[in-house]
Every structure is written in C-alpha cells, then in structure tokens.
Specification:
Helix content: under 10%
Number of strands: 25
Shape: elongated
Oligomer: single chain
Strand content: over 45%
Radius of gyration: 22 Å
Number of helices: 0
Largest sheet: 6 strands, parallel, barrel
Distance between the termini: 57 Å
Length: 283
C-alpha cells in the first residue's frame, strides 16, 4: 500500500467529509455525527481513531485499521469494502462487515454482533470476541478462525468452506445448513447444533445441549465428548463418529458407524429412515 498523505488530530462531521480520499493515513481522527464519513476510497491506513456517526466506512478497498473504536451510533459501519485488515479494535455498533471480500480481524471485540459478517468471502479471524446479537456470519464463505469466543445467537448459519480452531461458542442453532466446515479443539454449547449440515467435521470438540447433530449429511466426529444433556443425538443423520466417554442417547441415525466408551440408550423406532444401517458399538 502506497501512502502519500497524512491526516491527523482532526474531527469530521456532516455528510461525506472524507469522500474519495486515496493513499492516505488517518491518525487520531474523530468522525462525529453525520453519515458516510469515509466513502468510496482506497489504500487507507487508520490508527487510534474514533467513529460515532452512521455508515462511516463504505466502498473502501485496501485498508488497515488499528487501535480504533466504533461507537454504538456507528451502526452498519463497514460494508462493500474489500481487502481489509483490522487489529486491536473495539466495536460497539451492530451490523458490521457485509458484502465484502478478503477481511482479516485480529484481537477485535464486537459487543453487539447483531447481523455482523454477512456475505463475506475470504474471512480470517484470530482472537476475536463476539457478544450479543443474532445471525453473525450468515452466508459467509472461505473462513479461517483461530481463537473465537462468542455468545451471540445463531452463529455460522449457511456458511460454506470454513476451518475453525480454538473456539468457545455458546448459542443454539449454530452451524445450521453449513457445507464443508471443520471445527477443531472447540467447545460448542447449545441445542440443535449443526442441523441440516453437509460435510461437517468435528475434531477434539466438547458438545453440550439437546438434540445436537441431526439431519446431517456426511457428518464426521473424531475424539469428541458430549455432556449428559445431549440426547436424541444423530437423528436422521449419516455419521462416522468416534466418541470419548459417555453418550446419553442416540436416536435413529440413518447409516455409518458410531463408537463410544459407553452409551446410555439407543432409540431405533418406526420412524428411522432407510437404509437404517448404522453400526453402533462401545469400546
């Protein structure tokens, strides 16, 4: 990125005060009330700045944002902006990061993750925290995560092609209708995990909540553990699973193999779907 101009220690308000700036470094600026403070720009660096007005960062390509704060009023702040890196920032506004390509976040806290990360293609997260809000990551593709702590609702729905490591996710209905997702070394808390997924793979994960991993196609579990509240597991799923410890209840898997240290009960009733060929065993 080539920078040939620096703007520092200034405050901007109103409509589009920094429209069409390029090759510029912003240091310790403040965007106050108003709309679209930084719009239709390229090749920007921004450090130590604060954003209070609405929609302050739209249609900005190739940018680096560091040590910045986005207030509650900066809702829908970053959309349609490609090739962005954000580090060491705090976001209090909702509906960030939509319709983007190639977005990287490191050491970022988002305190209202409502409808955040929608339709992002090429998303990398490292040490990110999400609080509150609904449906973050909807329709995202090509995701890499290493270090995520989230209590937002309904995370990672309709996601394709993701690798997630070292996450702690507390919510229900997470990973619904995902495709080609692998999760390593993570804690997944909440009912109805992974329903209607395709090619979901969990490795060294701990799972809690009722009725996890149902209606799943080509589900794989390696060396995972389940809490005692997990019942009616694997209903209408095709599954290959090796489980550490105890499983409370397995219900009507379609096919595959399930092995655990111990199993409380297995329910195979008249509603099981063909081929009804799943082999269930204890070690």
């Amino acid at each position: 990125m080539h920078i040939d101009k620096v703007i520092k220690e200034k405050t901007f308000g109103g409509e589009r005060p920094l429209f069409q700036i390029h090759n510029t470094r912003l240091e310790n600026i403040t965007i106050t009330d108003g709309e679209s403070g930084i719009k239709c720009c390229s090749d920007l660096e921004c450090d130590g700045s604060k954003f209070y007005g609405k929609y302050p960062w739209w249609h900005v390509d190739r940018s680096l944002i560091t040590n910045c704060y986005f207030a509650v009023g900066s809702r829908s702040a970053i959309w349609y902006s490609n090739d962005m890196v954000m580090k060491d920032c705090v976001i209090d506004g909702p509906k960030f990061f939509r319709e983007m390509k190639n977005l990287e976040l490191e050491n970022v806290t988002i305190n209202d993750a409502d409808e955040t990360f929608w339709k992002v293609n090429g998303l990398k997260l490292k040490n990110v925290t999400l609080h509150d809000g609904t449906y973050p990551f909807m329709f995202c593709e090509n995701i890499e995560v290493d270090g995520l702590n989230s209590d937002s609702k309904y995370v990672f729905q309709y996601v394709k092609n993701a690798v997630i490591r070292n996450a702690k996710i507390t919510t229900k209905d997470s990973f619904w209708e995902t495709e080609n997702v692998t999760i390593y070394d993570s804690e997944l808390n909440g009912e109805y995990l992974g329903w209607h997924s395709k090619n979901l793979r969990l490795v060294n994960c701990h799972i809690s909540g009722e009725q996890p991993l149902c209606y799943a196609d080509n589900l794989v579990l390696e060396n995972c553990t389940f809490d005692k509240d997990c019942d009616r597991i694997f209903e209408d799923s095709t599954v290959e699973a090796t489980i550490k410890g105890h499983i409370t209840n397995i219900k009507n898997p379609i096919s595959g193999h399930i092995t655990a240290d111990s199993i409380g009960s297995v329910t195979i009733d008249e509603n099981v779907k063909l081929p009804n060929s799943c082999i269930i065993s204890t070690k």
